[in-house]
């Protein structure tokens, strides 16, 4: 599949955050979305996930058949979307049933994130980093080609950051797409960078935002 963004603009609370954003990502590619605090990285990911309407421009996909872009996405955002009263395994089972295209079992996914011992614990008992790893384990229980990750290393120790880098590498090697908003390298160093912000980008850089208020 291919994800294409053309001349995208974002307005929040009446203020133009960015405009003129264009890029395309295809199978196996990674895109690191960078920029200062408030530049609009999370807003861009929210737009890609279909939860925020663009102020202008278009987001489209090719090669997905009948499936819409939201149906092709996994999103791991600032809010982990986990139910505190459910166990880690129950949360993952719920996501697996809801999202379709099941892949790894909840236990396998937790093992991949180094957390097999929390499978039967309510998520409310977990540390911040453990919760984040359960949220990331959701990526593995269903097969979806595009991973949208917003600061995915938040609360992760170095070892878990390495695990995440491996998961992203593997996903891309299988033809998946990773788009991550981040202030860190993430292990996506070979990915293209989309810098949102007032820093002037080279003229040939199709990713540059053109207008700032
Ligand atoms: N729900 C919202 N309603 C109104 N304005 C919002 C909302 N969320 C974010 N904004 C505004 O949109 C702008 C961009 O915010 P966004 O969270 O996209 O930036 P970011 O680049 O992800 O920042 P950070 O690096 O701090 O996470 C900010 O000025 C913010 O105040």
From TrEMBL:
Record key words, sorted: ATP-binding, Cytochrome c-type biogenesis, Membrane, Nucleotide-binding, Translocase, Transport
Xref: InterPro entries: AAA+_ATPase, ABC_transporter-like_ATP-bd, ABC_transporter-like_CS, ABC_transptr_haem_export_CcmA, P-loop_NTPase
Organism domain of life: Bacteria
GO molecular function: ATP binding
Domain ABC transporter residues, every copy: 3-208
Keyword DNA damage among record annotations: no
UniProt-listed SUPFAM superfamilies: P-loop containing nucleoside triphosphate hydrolases (SSF52540)
UniProt record similarity statement: Belongs to the ABC transporter superfamily.
Protein name: Cytochrome c biogenesis ATP-binding export protein CcmA
Gene: ccmA
């Amino acid at each position: 599949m291919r994800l294409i963004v053309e001349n995208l603009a974002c307005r929040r609370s009446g203020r133009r955050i960015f405009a003129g954003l264009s890029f395309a990502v295809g199978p196996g590619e990674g895109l690191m979305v960078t920029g200062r605090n408030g530049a609009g990285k999370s807003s861009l990911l929210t737009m890609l996930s279909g939860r925020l309407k663009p102020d202008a421009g278009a987001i489209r996909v090719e090669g997905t058949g009948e499936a819409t872009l939201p149906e092709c996405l996994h999103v791991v955002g600032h809010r982990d979307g986990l139910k505190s009263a459910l166990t880690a395994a129950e949360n993952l089972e719920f996501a697996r049933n809801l999202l379709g295209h099941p892949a790894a079992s909840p236990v396998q996914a937790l093992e991949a994130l180094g957390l097999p011992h929390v499978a039967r614990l309510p998520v409310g008992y977990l540390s911040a980093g453990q919760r984040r790893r359960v949220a990331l384990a959701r990526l593995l229980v269903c097969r979806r080609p595009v991973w949208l990750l917003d600061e995915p290393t938040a609360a992760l120790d170095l070892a878990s950051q390495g695990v995440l880098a491996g998961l992203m590498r593997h996903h891309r090697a299988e033809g998946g797409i990773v788009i991550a908003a981040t202030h860190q390298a993430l292990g996506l160093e070979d990915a293209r960078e989309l810098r949102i912000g007032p820093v002037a980008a080279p003229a040939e850089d199709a990713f540059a935002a053109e207008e700032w208020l």
